[in-house]
Amino acid sequence: TQPRTPPALPLTMQILLTASLALIAPQMPASSRSTSTMRRTSAQMPASSRSAVTMKSSALDGSMVGDYGFDPLNLAATDLNLGSATEKERSLAFVLRDYREAELRHGRLAMLAALAWPVQELVNPVLARALREPDFLSELGGKSPSVLNGGLGLGPIPFVIAAFAVLIAGVDIYSLKLKGEVGENWLPGDFGFDPLNILGGASLEAKRDMQLKEINNGRLAMVAVTVFVIEEFFAKTSIVALNPLLFKPIYEYVDFQKFMDGAFAISSFRTN
Predict the structure, then answer these.
(1) Would you say 96 and 76 are in contact if contact means Cβ atoms under 8 Å apart?
(2) pTM of the entire structure?
(3) Are 119 and 95 contacting, i.e. CB atoms less than 8 angstroms apart?
(4) Banded pLDDT at 116 (limits 50, 70, 90)
(5) Which residues have CB under 8 Å from 179's CB, separation 6+?
(6) What distance, in Å, lies between the first and last C-alpha atoms of the chain?
(7) Which of 218, 193, 209 is nearest to 103 (CA)?
(8) 103 pLDDT tier (thresholds 50, 70, 90)
(9) For residues 26 and 17, what is the distance between their CA atoms, to the nearest angstrom?
(10) Measured CA distances, 138 to 45, 141, 160 (Å)
């Protein structure tokens, strides 16, 4: 008999595994650590001194957390901010900080979406039956509502979208206000929101490590949500059904059920 060929991983798992490996930062060689230390030290300089240092450095110089130097389209040197129409002399460092702010916001939103997307496909039918409410996802074949899947006008979904739009607008207004108050010391994505005090008393290295984890997880989440949208559109079925290895509960597998039946059958014959 020929050896059994293991089944191929679903497209979602292949892409997510590849993306996660691509986001792992390589270890810095010893020769570059001193340079990185100098860059971090420059970030702690007074605003006037740091501004002079930043203006002379290139945009992607490795000093920003999560900067791997990957910018094939040279977007970091292109100022797309609306203020650039009147402020022509903005440094590349300030331009890059605007992009980092946008990346963090999209990454945080994508992390929520990457969790909510499969969870609603799993939980919605159960809640609909329990609450005796319409199962809107059943009209879409179990798929999550999206621009490509449709369903954005079903039930309360338009109101949820409107609420998120208002919330995002509020964050934008607060961000612009905070940016104006802090000035050059403004840190992209820092809104002072830390209710669990996770970074309270943390060292500079610990803070940079947490920032790196957030930016990498946000990037991976953006890739994941994009894959969810594309895969459901072409496969015409839910991401949960397409990737049972990721989302199917273990108790639904026949082999696990047989194992548990056998284990409890043996225990039922035991006597003290």
Answers:
(1) yes
(2) 0.69
(3) no
(4) very high
(5) 186
(6) 46
(7) 218
(8) very high
(9) 17
(10) 58, 5, 19
